[in-house]
Amino acid sequence: MSTAPQHCPSPAELDDLELLLTGALAPLRGFGEPGSPVTLALPPEVDTQAREAGAVELVDPEGLPLARVAWPAGVAEPLSRPDYGPFRRLHLTPAEVRERFAGRAVLVVTGALSDEQLEAARDLGPLVLLALCGHDRHGLPATALLRAGLVAADLLDAADVVAVPLTRRADDLRDRVVQAYAGSDRVVDQSELSPLPEPAPKPGETYYTYGTHSGAIGAIVRAADKAPDERGLVLFFTGLSGSGKSTLARALVDRVLEHTARTVTSLDGDVVRRNLSAGLTFSKADRETNIRRIGWVAAEIARHGGLAVCSPIAPFDETRQQVRQLVEDAGGTFFLVHVATPLEECERRDRKGLYAKARRGEIPEFTGISSPYEEPQDASVRVDTTGRTIEDALDDVLQALAAERLLDLTAEPAVERARPLSVVEQGPTPVVEQGRPSPVVEQGRQARVETPEAEAEAPLRILFVCTANICRSPYMEAAARHHLGDTSRVVVSSAGTHGFDAKPTDAAMAAQLQARSIDSSDFRSRAVTRELLDEADVVLTAEATHRTFLLEDQPEAFRKVFTLGQLAAYVESSGTTARGRALVAEAAASRGSASPGLDVADPYRRGDAAAQAAAEHIDRLLATVLPALTPED
């Protein structure tokens, strides 16, 4: 027979184990007995090993063996007495309580005694305050309940506190457990000491918020009874690769920092893999280990009142439930966001070709293709990012958070952030196309710093962008420069999303420029860079796909990146009289669509007719856009 594996149960299971080993659940002797709510869940690999060995050894969080449990029979035999956790001295066995406090009335408490209840308790004589403090109980946290009980005991003539880790799931066995501790002594429930409020609490609710709590007990209650928006909170985004979950999570982090004084920790899947989970593979087991690690860290953040934002794929419901339990055991709130962008859209966004590789069998166990994604049935909110901006999709999350009174980020910040002396404004960002590692956005990075006066005097910088910077964008640059003439109020340049290095203008487009008496012989192509985007006041792309490509790596540039057709459509339809930078800001605020129907078609290697059509299309758009972009003198 093989050696029994070791396993550290959940906090609630450890509570159940303690009651089993002390005889508080007698005649139950183990987990999983017929009709019993006291069960033990083992991970699949531990379950297999335990069945082979005929037993599993249960250990505490520090690795101390507590019990040997026959498996799968479930009968538990003690190995040592627990010595972990706060107030361990208050954890007595039923036999110890019956012997030490024989003849005392047993007062069962699930919440802090109110002033009225304390007064009524004085008439009961010497007492045992039997505090039901299992880890999964609602209401006052276990440590706060025990601290309030100790204060109450000091205020009574003769009273002692005993901690009983009865879990919520074992409430059906409550009378049995209480009787094990009380023996033949009188039992009084806390609710009998004062009338219940109208309407009465539902079964399972605690009473610590009812009545008057003054003095030290009141301070404990007030400290523990935090408003929902003051509690530890874990925002957990789950969805397929490419669904937009990381982008939404980053936008939410920014919104929290802008609107509140709360600290926030981002646990992005890619970042965690490089640090906390470095060395793990992408096997199913390692992927689930990665999620559990994220969950453990997030729960610890919530335990201390912090806010954690997580954005792993997390495809399996069982693991998500484990994370939820970790967070709730830590006293935090778990808010699940299902980013439900369809698989087809995620594949369309995939620039690295991961989905295609998975379909060819080159990537095993790829979620959505060769490994399942179990859609959450318990999500707090469901968001489909298809065809939406980040700000629009994020609003679904913000409204749900506000409705549950967890965070209200729907209004403008109470104090407007001081605007840096920068030309580049921050603004809403699109749901970017995923499929490659999330870019690291350098916070606070500014290409140039200008005073408002200098900004007003500086020329407006226009950057035209197409694919290779040899057809459409060099035509835009040269034609715009020709159209603008001698003005120094606007400066134009161009680049390509996948730009060739130092190549001349495509012959067909150069011929179109030549036909308009515009010389492009000195032009040489280049790739677009972050620096070029930073320096530009407005970026005009030939196609919507170019715009999406730019915003994927630099989403904060949303307010100044448009397709040429999109900006021209705004100028024509809005009737605006704004000019220059004011026009750019106004167009950004309008949230107009960069519809592919407004694109300038790519003429590359499609012949002279396609080149002529592209040139004429660009000419019409520039004739609309350039006068509006030229600042007034």
TrEMBL record:
<dbReference type="GO" id="GO:0070814">
    <property type="term" value="P:hydrogen sulfide biosynthetic process"/>
</dbReference>
<dbReference type="GO" id="GO:0004020">
    <property type="term" value="F:adenylylsulfate kinase activity"/>
</dbReference>
<keyword id="KW-0067">ATP-binding</keyword>
<keyword id="KW-0418">Kinase</keyword>
<keyword id="KW-0597">Phosphoprotein</keyword>
<dbReference type="InterPro" id="IPR050512">
    <property type="entry name" value="Sulf_AdTrans/APS_kinase"/>
</dbReference>
<dbReference type="InterPro" id="IPR059117">
    <property type="entry name" value="APS_kinase_dom"/>
</dbReference>
<dbReference type="GO" id="GO:0005737">
    <property type="term" value="C:cytoplasm"/>
</dbReference>
<dbReference type="InterPro" id="IPR003593">
    <property type="entry name" value="AAA+_ATPase"/>
</dbReference>
<comment type="function">
    <text>Catalyzes the synthesis of activated sulfate.</text>
</comment>
<comment type="pathway">
    <text>Sulfur metabolism; hydrogen sulfide biosynthesis; sulfite from sulfate: step 2/3.</text>
</comment>
<protein>
    <recommendedName>
        <fullName>Adenylyl-sulfate kinase</fullName>
        <ecNumber>2.7.1.25</ecNumber>
    </recommendedName>
</protein>
<comment type="similarity">
    <text>Belongs to the APS kinase family.</text>
</comment>
<dbReference type="Pfam" id="PF01451">
    <property type="entry name" value="LMWPc"/>
</dbReference>
<feature type="binding site">
    <location>
        <begin position="239"/>
        <end position="246"/>
    </location>
    <ligand>
        <name>ATP</name>
    </ligand>
</feature>
<keyword id="KW-0547">Nucleotide-binding</keyword>
<keyword id="KW-0808">Transferase</keyword>
<dbReference type="GO" id="GO:0005524">
    <property type="term" value="F:ATP binding"/>
</dbReference>
<dbReference type="GO" id="GO:0010134">
    <property type="term" value="P:sulfate assimilation via adenylyl sulfate reduction"/>
</dbReference>
<dbReference type="Pfam" id="PF01583">
    <property type="entry name" value="APS_kinase"/>
</dbReference>
<dbReference type="InterPro" id="IPR036196">
    <property type="entry name" value="Ptyr_pPase_sf"/>
</dbReference>
<dbReference type="InterPro" id="IPR002891">
    <property type="entry name" value="APS"/>
</dbReference>
<feature type="domain" description="AAA+ ATPase">
    <location>
        <begin position="231"/>
        <end position="495"/>
    </location>
</feature>
<dbReference type="InterPro" id="IPR027417">
    <property type="entry name" value="P-loop_NTPase"/>
</dbReference>
<feature type="domain" description="Phosphotyrosine protein phosphatase I">
    <location>
        <begin position="460"/>
        <end position="632"/>
    </location>
</feature>
<dbReference type="GO" id="GO:0019379">
    <property type="term" value="P:sulfate assimilation, phosphoadenylyl sulfate reduction by phosphoadenylyl-sulfate reductase (thioredoxin)"/>
</dbReference>
<keyword id="KW-0548">Nucleotidyltransferase</keyword>
<dbReference type="GO" id="GO:0004781">
    <property type="term" value="F:sulfate adenylyltransferase (ATP) activity"/>
</dbReference>
<dbReference type="InterPro" id="IPR023485">
    <property type="entry name" value="Ptyr_pPase"/>
</dbReference>
